[in-house]
Amino acid sequence: MNPGGIRSDLVYAASGSEGDGVVTYGEAFTVQPFTNMMNVVDLTGARLIAALQQQVSGSNEASPKILQVSQGLTYTLDMTKSGAARLVVGSVRLNGVAIDPAASYRVAMNEFLAGGGDGFPALGQGTNKLVGASDLDLFNAYLAAHSSPAAPLAPPATNRITIIK
User: Fold this and answer.
1) Residue 66, SS3?
2) What gap in Å lies between CA 131 and CA 110, rounded to an integer?
3) Phi-psi region for residue 157, left (φ > 0), alpha (ψ -120 to 50) or beta?
4) DSSP string spanning 25-54?
5) What's the farthest any 2 CA atoms get from each other in the chain?
6) Where does the pLDDT of residue 152 fall: very low under 50, low under 70, confident under 90, or very high at 90 and above?
7) Confidence (pLDDT) at 133
8) Confidence class of residue 23 from pLDDT cuts 50, 70 and 90?
């Protein structure tokens, strides 16, 4: 998810009478109101690494745009360096396995990012594009499938991205 597409925090504490951890449709809409269509594309490991470098280089160097990545993808940004060198390339891993620059990875993102928006041209180079439902509909379906008022979804660990300052 691109940081510009997230318009509000999604907090665990109840904002009304619904109880802690329960997310209403209105809260979900407030977080991501653009209803972008989700795209799934094939990216080489090299293009995935380039996209992660683009968070902190080029048009995003002065004001980094940190992508919100899925569980399993981890990496380190060293903000004491400049440009693309801020990404510690050897730290980029999927489920603990180093990203292979020559391998192909199936990556989901919203249509804005799939078009190279927000200074991420590497994401616009994906192939075999599949267009699905809106991000808001999929987010709500995920919440419905993985939580209930009696068993709300707990916030995940925030150990996907390590930032060295």
Assistant:
1) coil
2) 9
3) beta
4) HHHHHHHSTT-PEEEEEEEEHHHHHHHHHH
5) 51
6) confident
7) 97
8) confident
- Residue ranges of domains in the chain, CATH in brackets: 3-164 (3.90.780.10)
Among candidate residues 156, 36, 4, 30, the one with its CA nearest the CA of residue 108: 36
Residue 58, burial from CB neighbour count under 10 angstroms (0-12, 13-18, 19+): middle
**Sole residue written with tokens 């041209």:** 121
Residue 69 · residue 161 · CB < 8 Å: yes
> Distance between CA atoms of 129 and 155, rounded to whole angstroms?
30
Dihedral (C-alpha) 17, 18, 22, 24: value to the nearest 10 degrees?
-100
Q: Report the pLDDT averaged over residues 155-162.
A: 88
Q: Which among 121, 46, 47, 52 is positioned nearest to 87, based on CA atoms?
A: 52
CB 49 within 8 A of CB 135: no
pTM of the model: 0.90
